Amino acid sequence: MVQLYIANKNYSSWSLRPWLLLKVLDIPFEEILVPFCEGDNFEQFRSFSPNGKVPCLVDGGLAVWDSLAIAEYLAEQFDGVWPADKAARAFARSASAEMHSGFSNLRNICTMNCGLRVQLFERSPALDAEIKRIEELWLEGLERFGGPYLAGPAFSAVDAFFAPVAFRFCGYGIALSPQAEAYVQRLLALPAMQEWEQAALLETWREPGHEAEAKAAGTWLADRRAKLKTARLALRELNLDDAPFVLEMLNQPAWIRFIGDRGIRDLKGAEAYIQDGPRTSYQQHGFGLYLISLHDGTPLGLCGFLQRDYLDHPDIGFALHSDHWGQGYALEAAQAVMAQGRAQGITKVLAITTEDNQASGRLLRKLGLAEQGRVLPPGADAELKLFAN
Fold first, then answer.
1. DSSP-derived pairing of the beta strands 29-33 and 2-6
2. Could you count the other beta carbons within 10 Å of the beta carbon of residue 212?
3. Would the pLDDT of 39 be above 90?
4. Nearest in space to 229 (alpha carbons), one of 117, 369, 115, 326
5. Least buried of 126, 141, 277, 283, by fewest C-beta within 10 Å?
6. SS3 assignment, position 141
7. Pick from 210, 16, 14: nearest CA to 108
8. H/E element holding 161?
9. Dmax of the chain from CA atoms?
């Protein structure tokens, strides 16, 4: 079985191309992921790739580097890499080569980052020209060869070469013609593309160079990447797109009973809650309530540190949707948040609960917090139990 060396799925567009081709064509391979390190990766990647870059395919003692060379190597052994029809094959190879060697403005400005949604600061004429050329290529292929893929009815290497562009157009909000947008959605709907994206969102690595490139491109509207990952869960910052789930959480009977009725009954109110609460806290304090989800993205609840005006130290809060009670998710998420807090230098952690919230009290004791007394929040009618580590 061949081995495919790749780098971070969130960042590495070149790694995606042969990985996706192998996956869609159902060619067996072993994936070996070597994360980008800060700075120069040449020596690290030279241990498996002659040019010190990813991707690299290793077949026994033979190394094949560069995504286009990998595609051609696979085409010598497997059907379907390129279309069988001569004209379609010529188009597919030409379009793939153009993608391989061109579109530098798109690569440099709309850097690959599966987890981000970015509003560009500006779109230069050069970038617009490249976007126009990509649309032109796509529409030519779809019209000449009948679709639904660029060179005909079957997915082939040319679609793999443009797959990262689909992530880029989606992530940077690039408006396209209806036909081009339909092709983007077709690629994004591929099970293999969804598998890649979900794995990318679960990566907690952050490489400063790639992060700086995305910061330079525009305003980050959403960051969907996990901040923390456990055996079953991912925890990430809340975005405005999470408003439907947050609205449901805020109106759960248990939330209203044990945390309080925030009086939020619509999506606009939930968006304001996210922006004025967690997202402002991320900026001011470096922490806040995170969304808890399963690795497949299913939302479960909220957990994180809060900085309340009437408490001297951060307190930990957590709430699970009632559909997911009794499975240990809250404890697993809270343990991850506590560990992150220690790494951030948060040594003193508080917590507050109502008198009758016995379940939260038990969980807090498992975290190493003990009941310290009572506290009366400003404007409240009843005191709350105060816990501390």
1. parallel
2. 11
3. no
4. 115
5. 283
6. helix
7. 210
8. helix 157-171
9. 79
Helices (H) and strands (E) in the chain, counts: 16, 14
Cβ(217)–Cβ(111) under 8 Å?
Answer: yes
What does the pLDDT look like over 79-123, one tens digit per residue?
999 999 999 999 999 999 999 999 999 999 999 999 999 999 999
Q: Radius of gyration (Cα) for the chain, nearest Å?
A: 24
- Residue 389, pLDDT score: 97
Query: What is the distance between the alpha carbons of residues 1 and 58, in angstroms, rounded to a whole number?
Result: 9
* Structure tokens that stand for 107 in this block: 């690569």
Going by C-alpha positions, the residue among 363, 249, 373 that lies closest to residue 316 is 363
- The DSSP H or E segment spanning 168 is helix 157-171
Is 90 exceeded by the pLDDT of residue 176? yes
- Cβ neighbors of 4 (< 8 A, separation 6 or more) are 18, 19, 22, 29, 30, 31, 32, 55, 56, 57, 58, 70
- Say what the pLDDT of residue 38 is: 87
Rounded to whole angstroms, the Cα distance separating 59 from 122 reads: 44
Report how far residue 73's alpha carbon sits from residue 318's, in angstroms, rounded to the nearest whole number: 52
| φ/ψ (deg, to 5) at 207 | -105, 120
Residue 180's pLDDT is 98
What is the phi/psi pair of residue 31, to 5°? -85, 130
Q: How far apart (Å, rounded) are the C-alpha atoms in residues 338 and 135?
A: 48
Fill in the DSSP letter of residue 227. Answer: E
Query: Exposed, middle or buried by CB within 10 Å (0-12, 13-18, 19+), for 216?
Result: exposed
Dist CA 32 CA 29 (whole Å): 10
